[in-house]
Write a structure and sequence with these properties.
alpha/beta; Rossmann fold
Amino acid sequence: MATPHNQAETGEIAESILLPGDPLRAKFIAENFLEDVEEFNSVRNMLGFTGNYQGKRVSVMGTGMGCPSIGIYSYELIHFYGVKNLIRVGSCGSVQEHVRVGDIVMAMGASTDGGYAHQYKLPGTYSATASYELLARAVQSASEHGFSHVEGNILSSDLFYTETPEWKEWAKMGILSIEMESYALYCNANRAGVRALGIFTVSDSIVTGESLPAKERQVGFTNMMQVALETAVSFTE
């Protein structure tokens, strides 16, 4: 069933999907990791593909930037296309000295400075958490490959450019890094009873000012993609 944002027909999207923000990163994953690839979406240039990884069917699709954008795409994937396992892959900025550029961050939970959960009319502040099953499998994969990784709470911020150094206050609460989408993804997944996880490569450190060089960025991102794909197909029949 096509939607205003996705031209895929029923059955064209796998039950497990990787969700990079950048649609060109979705294209990169499809071309470099998947076999027998078919494109299922190009509406608004938000590219989506389905193929095989290690003999199992998996999809990948861009989501754009920010909670509103991934909120739309993940909601439709869950409710219109029957997706059960959603793994966000992307970059993040570290706000802790021990979380270094090139590390893989796995988001056990996502805090936010936005209002995505307001729609649920909850009588308090909602803690958006990942699927433990996906997280445990991702940790296992990264450990088996010897990839440097850390697990904990991250911040999904509505702000990229800020007037004040608000990250310092979040860092005091143990936040590992900042990105812009996982809180909405976790809310949608938890509300629907499906699995979700955010996996990130640290591209820069807000603490030290370091950033990942272009060549190392490519390696770091492919390590993250490998972990995400191995995790995704572990939950695919």
